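User: I'm preparing a small set of examples for a lab meeting where we compare how different chains pack in three dimensions. I only have the primary sequence for this one, and I'd like the structure in token form so I can line it up with the others. Please keep the answer compact; I'll paste it straight into my notes.
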Amino acid sequence: MFTGFGFNSLKVVGQAANSGYPLKVLCYNLRFGELATLEELAEFIKSENPDIVALQEVDVKTKRERASHQNGKDFITELGCRTGMLTSYARTIDYAGGYYGIGILSKYPFEKTRKVVLPIPEKSNEQRALLLADIELPDGKMFTFVSTHLDHSSSEVRIIQVNALNKALKKNKLPVIVAGDFNGRPDSPEISEGMKEWLQACSPDFTIPSDKPRSKIDYIFYKPAKNWKTINAYTSKITLSDHLPVIAEIELF
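Assistant: Understood. Below is the structure token output for the 253-residue chain.
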């Protein structure tokens, strides 16, 4: 069973009139399930009751010595089944006899999904990608949701990947949310400059390591400003991974 709570909640007071479509977004790096069972991870997600979830470090049928209790498990399918949410998955690399990548859970149907492979500059650690999903809401509104996990090797590598992210989404016609583990602190150039045209929906709380957070590298961004409003944002102090999950309650106009 998990134990956790939200802290340092950031609230934005909105107008009662002309309210948008409410969405709860959760972003979580799972640490390939090393520190928890899939049952515990699913229980936590269900307790937050998000509309859409960006997941990183999602294993499918791997056999890791450090996470032997997860050997052979299909994370994205099992989490979808246990939470009752729809799923999308993007493999980034083959690993330990299976796949390692990023995923999305959604209460609402996917109009379409696609993977965009990010550059692998010199000195980068491994292949990274964007997983894009156009989501159809019950009221007819649509938005694009992106899950990503940038390279941890260096800021120089991440700047190139952020530039590729911006290029891939430049002509996107729908309002966009990008959520993921960027492996960069707020004052790093990949965040402060590379993501300066985006608004942050997440709180400024530190997200890693989960037992004694000292740094923030997990984010929820959106644009354009006219289509979104943050109602509430917080970071849940839950130690099922080495990352803390970031959560935002927002409205789409």
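A couple of notes for your slides: The longest helix spans residues 155-169. The radius of gyration is 17 Å.

User: Perfect, thanks.
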